[in-house]
Amino acid sequence: MKVFMLGWEFPPFISGGLGTACYGLTKALDQMGVQITFVLPTAVQSKYATHVKLVSPTMQQPINTPVKVHQLKNVVFRTINSPLQPYSTADSYQRKIEESISKMQASHGKTGKFVGTLDYSGDMYTEVQRYADLAIRLAANEQFDVIHAHDWMTYPAGVAVARATGKPLVVHVHSTEFDRSGEHVNQMIYDIERMGMHAADRVIAVSYLTRSIVISRYGISGDKVEVVYNGVERNGNSNLLVGNTTIKKDEKIVLFLGRITMQKGPDYFLRAAKKVLEKVDNVRFVMAGSGDLMHRAVEMAAELGIGSKVLFTGFLRGEDVNKIFKMADLYVMPSVSEPFGIAPLEALDNDVPIIISKQSGVSEVITHALKVDFWDVDEIANKIVAVLKYPPLGVTLRSHGNYEVRKLRWIDSAARCAKIYEEALVGAGV
């Protein structure tokens, strides 16, 4: 089986769980003997691409990389500097463009404020279409049986390649516009999502929560929507040492790790933190991540009078993620709408008990977690206090949760995907 896979991020260049999921899934598919060509709009270091051939839709020559030649035998590096990320909105894309222009002006010794109020939502569409056009050119030189497109930014490319080659298309829904934006959806993004799902031969949803949204909000027949849960990459850094921090040894650490956006519920986390600190003083709340609500979260912590008790780390990846989990006594995910949620699995894999919102896909597969409605700040606070004040509860959640997470393996997810590929091929008469 040969798969032409389309994705917008891959470790270490990630902005959320999508890149982590692509890595885990492709690694497991590789173990099954599935050959994958992964089309990516940015360069990836070879040490992160040991199991897939990576190509990037650009007409530029391969970039020079400080790695040994033998490490590149299954990897092709080309680069396209795209300001568009998997979780971009029209507003965040415009800010990214303006930041780039400001940096360019500064580097050339220019002064003055960037003038113009261009509608960059059109450029978001152009960026996605450019990726699609170049993906077709790449596909012409590849041999494959099925196309697998991850999330909305690659759907136009997937549809275009499918039409050009006649190969079946599988689209993978890791998140929908309703998860990211609530009821105030970006119509352009919604239309692309709907188009991709309807054009696909099969649709993969990361949870039954997501499957229900795909069926009810996008009008997709339930017959072609399959649920494939995410897995977790087993943690091999159990003896990882943690360096010096400003946190006192006797302080408990409650961790929020994720994008600081409306979808992830950072305001509910901070309001709960305020209530916890009214009952327990030796607690430090750590918010690891970045996003469009970052500055508002900092301001909110100050307004609540808990600024000295909240530490903002910015975006973390790789070893830094492992270190922060090593420090944490509890992980909290108060997401408003979470299609799945890989971070709670990573927390359990690091022996950290978790509190997760009922409005998440991961709550479907993990039993030994404390579950709350994202909006119930009092209950979130009560459960945080319970775990911190009653050690036996934390021990139980850790031990049983860690056992549960061992059953969520990427190899099982990959086997489900391989079966879906076969069904798509049969259905398409290939």
CATH class of the largest domain: Alpha Beta
Would you tell me the overall average pLDDT?
82
Q: How many beta-strand runs?
A: 13
Helix/strand order: EHEEHHEHEHHEHEEHEHEHEHEEHHH
> Shape, please?
elongated
Q: What is the distance, rounded to the nearest whole angstrom, between the alpha carbons of the first and last residues? A: 13 Å
Low-confidence stretches: 59-81, 108-122
Q: Which structural class is indicated by helix and strand composition?
A: alpha/beta
Main β-sheet: number of strands, strand sense, barrel status?
Answer: 7 strands, parallel
Can you walk through the features of this model?
By secondary structure, the protein is α/β, with parallel strands linked by helices. The chain has two domains: 2-83 and 122-231 and 411-427, Rossmann fold; 252-405, Glycogen Phosphorylase B (Rossmann fold). Helices cover 41% and strands 13% of the residues. The chain has 14 helices and 13 strands. The protein has helices spanning 17-31, 90-107, 121-139, 155-165, 177-181, 187-199, 208-218, 266-277, 294-303, 319-327, 343-349, 377-389, 391-405, 410-427, and strands spanning 2-6, 35-39, 53-55, 146-150, 169-173, 202-205, 225-227, 252-257, 283-288, 310-314, 330-333, 354-357, 370-372. β8, α8 and β9 form a beta-alpha-beta unit. 46% of the residues are buried.
